[in-house]
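Comment thread on ticket #2218

A.B. wrote:
> Attaching the input chain for the structure job we discussed in standup.
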Amino acid sequence: ALAPPTEAPPPTHTQGAITDGAEGENLLVVTVPDNVKPGDMLRVTAPSGAKLLITVPDGAVPGNQLEFSVPPKPEPAADTAPAAPQEAAAAPTTTKDAALLDEDMAAVRMQSAIRGHKVRYEMNEQRRLEWLAHYQQPYVAEFDRALALCVTEEEERAVEAARKAYMLAESKKIAPRAKPAGNCFTKCFADKKKSEEDLAATKLQSIIRGKNTRAQRQEENRVEWFKYYLSIRNFEEAKKLAVSPEDFAKIEEAMAPPKPEDLAATKVQSIIRGRKTREEMQEASRLEWYNFYLKSGDFAKAMEMAVSPDEEAQVKLYQEMANPKEDLLKAATKLQSATRGHLARTETQEAARIEWLRFYIEAENYEKAKELVVTQEEDEAVEAMYLAKTAAEKAAEPKPICACLPCIKAVGPPPGKERRAAFEMALEEHDWDAAERLAQTEGEQTELHNHRERVKAIKDMALLGQEEEALNLATTEKEKSMLKGGGAMDMARKDILNSQIKNKNTDAAMKLAVTDKERAVVAASAPMDEATRKERFVGAVKGYEWEKAEALAEGDEELQDVKDSIERVKLLQTHMANGEKDKALKYAITSAEREKVMSGATKL
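C.D. wrote:
> Ran it. Output below, let me know if you need it in another format.
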């Protein structure tokens, strides 16, 4: 199918004028009015008052400008009596004589003296043909508009033929032709008796269906690409694909600057979505670590991760069940001694039975141990030990994948929506390693590449002092707040400072430090043994000294631990300030934090 024209039909004009021509001739410029087609007669009144009759030439459409050669004003006759010199120069020919002469000569010379501006004619004709073809497309089917653009009988016949073909195809869709009924011969050979008209109609329908399908696919592709260019704000390409006033209106609406209230609403929604996602991910991460510590037997850390009385009670229960063998063996021994008087066995046999029962219990062969039990109490004790063993084996199974960035770096990305949310968080935090592990589609790889290039450009502009250009590239509030207020150069300085600290270049980092806090961070990054570094790192995290903790962190996992702790403490302080104890307890992981929350404190 033909692509629709990219601009509207040419407008019509009704102005005309007289211009100078060659060899003393005058050119009459006439604009073809509406509702006029080639072959029609027009009556034109020249500026001199002469009334002319002209024929519209072939190929002219409303709005075209036609040029006609008009004879010059006639001179006085030779036999006219000479007048005085002054009067002869000023005596004009009468208007009536000039009009008669103009009418006689125009009828002969007008039709052969048509001159037009070929460039305008060709452009208008091309636009007319484009719109004529567009209106005849099956997915448009505006044949009345197509007829209005026809200028020859051949074009009118072609439009009518297209209309009939379209109506025939639509009628076939609505009311399919019933198969002929009759005897076996008629049913078997009915197709062979089709007339030429039926065969032609079938072939025409097949062609029309094929064109309609292709046109529909092209239209769907056009709409998809149009929406895509609008989404990336490539308005030049979108204008090339626009075919209707609605499309152009959408482009104008997208090009218009957003309203302040819309920007504010978008910003608030983004903040709320980001906070909600982070809260859900942090809660999921807490539960994963809680279950991991609980099932691995690290009950001290599990108690730190517990935030409710039920979870604390669960930790105590698991702790009591962790080593049940000694108590159960004592119970078994006591039960055996209580049953000796009721059994018809000798003391030697009873001692042997108890000894084998203990052996099978210690060897965790509970099936053999059940064969030696003689009382209900012994049976219940063996069953309890068997259940404890099963629970321990289940706890040793691999834990599910967590959605936090340290777990992603260790075991890979989680599935589904959690992966996408973690990918967006990694981009926001500029954690490119985690983002690379989370990106799974070509579009996400491109998005990651664009973010990295954008952040690199921001840093380069900050180094060059181009704060305004850097602000234009910043997309998050964190980036904008760091750049505003003359912070572009400071941002570049801090970026180099962090790089020097990470590379253990203490001397160079100390030269870049400008505050006491930064100097303390540089001093903390000086070489030290691993035990001292680990102790100082844990102390910095517990003391909420984030910059010092980042300087002491070794590897991406510890850096991510610092980032997660910062977000957790922010949410904890927010809920404490709002008096929301239940929500604050979800983020309190140490006993000191829980005590402050329960005491009603508003800040740490």
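A.B. wrote:
> Thanks. Noting for the ticket: Confidence is low (pLDDT under 50) at residues 8-15, 76-93, 178-182, 398-403.
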